[in-house]
């Protein structure tokens, strides 16, 4: 299989030292890096700048969700760090999404702005408990449509929804899919999952993979094995 899907390694580590132990072994031509809430809270913006300085494309996964003014300013602060992609929660609503988009208008090369639809850890039942009566796929579609109307570049969804979203939002709408699990690996708290090979076959642009790499005995080798499985 040959693929244009890019892997972003989720650097879900407790501190910069542990994260750099893996980053030192990675090639920015072969993968991007995702910094989420744990590492950003521990290591801060300086760590993100360090990854950018090492030529990695960085996905700042802080999932901003607040009033429009606050989210717009947070997105702008992310752009100042030089990240490649930043995200917000689509459930923040149209005005919040539009404010986030507008905050990037003056950047010659802004980060991709992506909206989280339904977390890949959630099932239909989890959604129903929060008062949402439709199933996960319907909610993903509704929020992706809203994100597209607001001018965002794409969404975070599960690979299981990729086909539906490609038809509804077009091939240029960027799909970012966590919940990627190589055959036989532990699902953990993820629920709407797919293997890297199946996800790449769908033509998904960004595959986010964390624990199957970071918790492996040899993380760099685990990443390489996934790359090989995608290019075989
Ligand atoms: O819907 C979502 C949105 C974000 N994530 C993040 O992706 C990684 C997945 O890590 P794994 O270890 O491969 O499960 C993690 O950082 C999440 O915060 C997500 O899983 N689902």
From TrEMBL:
UniProt catalytic activity: orotidine 5'-phosphate + H(+) = UMP + CO2
SMART domains cross-referenced by the UniProt entry: OMPdecase (SM00934)
InterPro entries, A to Z: Aldolase_TIM, OMPdecase, OMPdecase_AS, OMPdecase_bac, OMPdeCOase_dom, RibuloseP-bd_barrel
Quaternary data: Homodimer.
Entry's family note: Belongs to the OMP decarboxylase family. Type 1 subfamily.
Catalytic residues, chain numbering: 61, 63, 66
CDD domains, per database record: OMP_decarboxylase_like
GN (gene name): pyrF
Pfam families, per the entry: OMPdecase (PF00215)
Annotated binding of substrate, by residue: 12, 34, 61-70, 120, 181, 190, 210-211
Pathways involved: Pyrimidine metabolism; UMP biosynthesis via de novo pathway; UMP from orotate: step 2/2
Biological processes per GO annotation: 'de novo' pyrimidine nucleobase biosynthetic process; 'de novo' UMP biosynthetic process
GO function terms (MF aspect): orotidine-5'-phosphate decarboxylase activity
Task of the protein: Catalyzes the decarboxylation of orotidine 5'-monophosphate (OMP) to uridine 5'-monophosphate (UMP).
The protein's Enzyme Commission number: 4.1.1.23
Source organism (scientific name): Pseudidiomarina sediminum
Cellular component GO terms held in the UniProt record: cytosol
Enzyme class: lyase
Listed PANTHER family: OROTIDINE 5'-PHOSPHATE DECARBOXYLASE
Orotidine 5'-phosphate decarboxylase domain sequence ranges: 6-226
Name this protein carries in UniProt: Orotidine 5'-phosphate decarboxylase
Gene3D superfamilies documented for this protein: Aldolase class I
Keywords of the record: Decarboxylase, Lyase, Pyrimidine biosynthesis
């Amino acid at each position: 299989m040959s693929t244009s899907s890019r892997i972003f390694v989720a650097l879900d580590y407790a501190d910069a030292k542990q994260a750099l132990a893996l980053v030192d072994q990675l090639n920015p031509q072969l993968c991007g890096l995702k910094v989420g809430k744990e590492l950003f809270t521990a290591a801060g913006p300086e760590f993100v700048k360090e990854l950018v300085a090492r030529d990695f494309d960085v996905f700042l996964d802080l999932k901003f969700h607040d009033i429009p003014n606050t989210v717009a300013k947070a997105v702008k602060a992310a752009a100042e760090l030089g990240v490649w992609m930043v995200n917000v929660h689509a459930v923040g609503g149209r005005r919040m999404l539009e404010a986030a988009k507008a905050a990037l208008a003056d950047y010659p090369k802004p980060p991709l702005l992506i909206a989280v639809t339904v977390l890949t850890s959630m099932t239909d039942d989890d959604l129903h408990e929060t008062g949402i009566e439709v199933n996960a796929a319907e909610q993903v579609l509704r929020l992706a449509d809203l994100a597209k109307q607001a001018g965002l570049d794409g969404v975070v969804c599960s690979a299981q929804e990729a086909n539906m979203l490609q038809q509804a939002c077009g091939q240029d709408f960027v799909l970012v899919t966590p919940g990627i699990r190589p055959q036989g690996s532990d699902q953990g708290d993820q629920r709407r999952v797919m293997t890297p090979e199946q996800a790449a076959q769908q033509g998904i642009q960004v595959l986010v993979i964390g624990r199957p790499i970071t918790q492996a005995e040899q993380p760099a080798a685990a990443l390489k094995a996934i790359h090989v499985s995608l290019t075989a």
